[in-house]
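Each field is listed here:
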Amino acid sequence: MSEFKEKYGAWGIIFGATDGVGKAMAKFLAERKLNVVLVGRRTAALDELGKGLAEEYQVEYQVVTEDLSTNQAIERIIEQTKELDIGFVSYVACLSVFGPFSEHTWEDEEKMLQINIVSFTKYFHYYTKLFKEKNRGGIINIGSMSGLTGSPYIAQYGAGKSFIIKMTEAVGFEMLDTNVDIMVPILGSTITPSFLQSLPDTEAGKAALAAAMTPEECMDEIFENFGKTRSMILGDLNRKNAKEMAGQPSDQTIEFVGNLFK
């Protein structure tokens, strides 16, 4: 497992490490002996995670408490970690507000834009440039099936995930002549606290829960393919559903997705 550290460097940063996929990512890195920077809003939860990883895997950790919906958040994170040998980064952070777009507050819309687009782009630009200069590094940006089609009732979230997917795919190609691995795994229903909280108490919601992957299952599939492919949909069922969606008119797909939450 030490090969991962030798290839990418001593430290990895997880943007959105508090729970769910981010927490599983941090554990995966620690298992492979990378020291971890845990970025999120809840200091106590991040510190608890870091202490557990340090004790179990004998790695170092640093907690950076930061709200990615605020201006200059990425710049502050960079400043706090600039002395570390950063070799791997992952943007897991996201914000989704459920409900009709016309009923959201503009404050909520701005927060989503900041986290899902602006902070992401600043982060991606900085670390792509840094790793290209080093000619070494790994970047994983988490995508979502909601970014493959218009997603009613989570419209801006889906659009933001589409942005992340297409940006990562394109930049991944641009970096092919370097030793920097870039990937966007596209997740479907995944059992995380936010997923469980937003799940509708309907037959469709129960079906989504039954088909959901765990964060640990996602990690297994992600890192089995990291460095081999730049973009992939996780899970056989999700790949099947994506293939079916691609073969029908967009209106039909969007109507199906919208009716799940209507």
